[in-house]
Amino acid sequence: MALLSPLLAPAVSICVSIIGVGLVGKQVVAQLTSPALAPLFRIVSLSNSRHTLALSPAAPALDARALLALLPPSSAPLPTSSPHPAASYAPADPAALVRSLAHTARESNKHTILIDCTSDLAVTEQYPAAIAAGLSVVTPNKKGFSSSGELWKQIVDAQSAPGAGLVYLEATVGAGLPILSTLRDLLKTGDEVTKIEGVFSGTMSYIFNEFSKPAAPSAPSSGPKFSEIVKIAKENGYTEPHPADDLSGSDVARKLTILSRILSINPSTLPALPSLPEGYASLSTETLIPAALASIASGDEFVQKLPEHDAEFDQLRAEAEKEGKVLRYVGVIDRQSGVVKCGLEKYPAAHPFASALSGSDNIVAFHTARYAQRPLIVQGAGAGADVTAMGVVADAIKVAERYGAKVHL
């Protein structure tokens, strides 16, 4: 007897347009064209910073390698002809792409998902038009949901337009971890979320898991130098090319902004959270960039000069160890006090943020009316192209299901 396919014969075929084909984007292409999902999704365009490749949805499906080979690198000129009969090229223009996708979706009566795998604010500014035009948006790009309050409002309002598309953004906060879906399930089923706290940055998690480990107060650890750990993290690709981008805390602040805004648009009897008109820039964010290094533009130079400030971090670690605690860079949303902040905190050695973390894992604790005695904890890899792509593709599957696709358990 033949094994069942992972998918039932789909009732609909979903078109997909992907903007951004870096590490995450390439993984998204690979997953969408895998045998399990190829019957359901048809990639109709790929864009990088300079070029857009358009593909006829009626043409035979291509695998990931063939698709990606058709898109020239952004450093190359726009092709004047196509090596494939179903392919055509145009300059990259997100606004024009949205208009074209919306027009084609109306004409073909096929739902289209716009997947934004960039970190470009300009792309996110097209979300309201895309959603209002009936396209669904799936993205790991945090900027549209964590920048100005006006853009956030436009995105939310667009979802009320007749025939509006859907919005899924799981990967903006936890990569492949079910953080936003967990929050949504809690809120939509009437639970009151009183507090969210967690280690939201894989980079910060790795740095402090290595720098500040549980130790007996009577035998404090001298431990490795902060600058050494940051250097290793950069060499292994755990940080941005400029480590200050991670040490600034802005990535955590953006994730807290998204969580806070989702909390705020759901009914609650608890005190209102800050409105965050400037998004993540409105948060109380503790930077770990030494003031003397704040203006250094080169990541390599920053790493070279960071050892000059090791004594400052050694002192912070020693103070925590005297209390039998460790240092962790965390984000906190406390609804009772109305506080939304991120920075260094000290935790006892037995606390899950101290004892349960390793490597670059993220961990998030939801304190709610239902989970009052012990918080609901979500933990696991919070970074990496493969797990981020998984979060994106899982969201795309949710869109497909809501538009009629039948997917096996």
From TrEMBL:
Signal peptide: none annotated. The keyword Glycosyltransferase does not apply. The active site is at K255. The lineage of its organism: Eukaryota, Fungi, Dikarya, Basidiomycota, Pucciniomycotina. NADP(+) binds at G20, V21, G22, L23, V24, G25. L-homoserine binds at E240. Its EC number is 1.1.1.3. This is Homoserine dehydrogenase. One of its GO terms (molecular function) is NADP binding. Residues 20-166 form the Aspartate/homoserine dehydrogenase NAD-binding domain.
